[in-house]
Fold this protein.
Amino acid sequence: MRENLYKYINAADWNDTSFSVTKAYVCAKFSQLIYEYKPTSLNDRTSFYDINDETLRNYKNISQFNSLLSNSDMNLLFIAEDRHSVTVGISAFRVVIVASRGTAVKKDWLINLNFPKNKACKLEKLNFHRGFHNIALKTLDKIHKRLAREDAPVCFTGHSLGGALTGILYFYFRSNCNCRGSHAILKRNSISAYTFGMPMFSNKKSPTFDNLYHIYNQKDIVPAIPPKSLKFQQNGIQYEISVSGLNKVENHKFINFKKFIKLIFNGKVVKEHVIENYIAMLQNVVPK
């Protein structure tokens, strides 16, 4: 990991929040890396671990994950986890990466089906998917408090359910909305986000998501749920990726029904969604 990411992290200007294929590739690699962390416990209690000597001494799995990062000269800042999600903060040379993912349990998909919406911002009349929103709010305050101690630009990232959590966390760190208290940190203009295969989590598009970039594979069905018939929309700036390249699109292009059914019967649904597939396609377009 060290040899691979050093080059790309240092090549990117993280203070510039405009889209970058290099930053997208770095974020995809961190979105993959977080799957290597084994949660301390799989219960409904939310735990937040500020990384210090005591934490590393008492939790073997956190110590092992920290060692993996330390071998690449990166610093683990915090871990937030519960039964449904894990979010980690990593100081990676010139940027703080905040990566989120869902835990690998069947109950994750029940969260995806929790379609009703929570009010997120009265000012923008913005509502969020209740299941995703409830998870993000559990750790919002503690993540905000920990990131306020950092001076570097912050980049949020996540794949699948982690992408939806990323989008919601990003909103609260970027928005002027004070519905749930201010979570804007000092370098608010140096905050960006990259998501991959992200399900829809909001009822409308919002200008707050101007520096959130969603990369999706048209053959991946997860970005098409929950269904638009339930009045969900993709947020952020959309980039469609395939083996032939990466293209910015005005609106998310959904796969047609016949191709969707064919993918299901071919057993390729999971293959098209996994983060490794996104990384493989990004490797074709990232500057060498």
Q: What stands out?
A: The longest helix spans residues 130-147. The mean pLDDT is 86.
